[in-house]
Structure formats: structure tokens, C-alpha cells
Amino acid sequence: MPAVSAIIFGARHLSPEHIQGKRVIDVGACDFNGSIRPLVESWHPSEYIGVDIIEGPCVDIVCSADDLLAKFGPSSFDIVLSIEMLEHSRFWKKSISNMKQICKPGGQIILTTRSLGYPCHGYPN
After folding, report:
1. I need a labelling partner for 97 at 20 to 30 A (CA). Which of 9, 64, 81, 113 fits?
2. Which residues pair with 109 in a beta bridge?
3. Distance CA 56, CA 44 (A)
4. Considering only CA atoms, which of 113, 79, 77, 123 is closest in space to residue 93?
5. How far is it, in rounded angstroms, from Cα 28 to Cα 25?
């Protein structure tokens, strides 16, 4: 559930050349107040999969970030996005490890999170 600033960050640091024809996963994809998905899909990835721990808009597969490796296998995606999700993960180190492992060698991980001091929290609490 990214803030507008996180979507702008993605727009500045990604380009059609990064995305076109690539396999993309968006970890924490549920659209509560905005999504980077329309932008990324406009650049024609070969596949775009939105995952989150709950069903909702922009979620294709319900899956915890802690289970990404088991669900998708190693080196499965060219681009791994995680926009404003980590502050919701109690086991954030495992989440990051899984994101690294599902990313192909030479792939890219784009990760944003709230600033220092922002505690772990559920949504909407």
C-alpha cells in the first residue's frame, strides 16, 4: 500500500527498458491507497504477479513474503518490487532473504519502506 511518494520513486528509478518482456513480482501488492501496478503494466512485462497476505485489489496470489521461495522457487523473477511493505513484516529479514532468492542473477530488486523509527504494524493499525 504505497504512498504517492513511493510510486513516484518507482517511476523515477524504473523505466520501460527495465520492465519490458521481464517477469515481475510485486510483494505486498494490495492496493489500499495506490499501486505501482498500472505504471509497470503499461511497460509490458512478460508477466506481472501481485502477491500479498490478504486478498484485495491488485493481488493475484495470496502468499506471505516469508513463503516466497517455497511458492515460486529460486531465480524466478527478473524484477522484484516491494513498495511500502516491510514495515508490515514481523520477520522482515526473512522477507528480504526470500526476495533476494527469487530474483534472478542480474535481476533487480526495488524496495521502499517507511523511514527510520516507523514501527512494525498491521493494516490499518
Report:
1. 9
2. 80
3. 22
4. 113
5. 10
pLDDT of residue 124: 43
How many CB atoms are closer than 10 A to CB 108?
17
Residue 1 pLDDT class (50, 70, 90 cuts): very low
Give the pLDDT confidence score for residue 11 in this predicted structure: 83
33 class by beta-carbon count within 10 Å (0-12 exposed, 13-18 middle, 19+ buried): exposed
What nine digits make up the cell of 58? Answer: 491488485
CA–CA separation, 102 and 124 (whole Å): 28
Residue 5: CB atoms within 10 A of its CB come to 10
Bridge partners for 24 per DSSP: 48, 79
Long-range contacts of 120-125 (CB under 8 A, 24+ apart): 120/87, 120/88, 120/89, 120/90, 120/92, 121/87, 121/88, 122/88, 123/1, 123/32, 123/88, 124/32
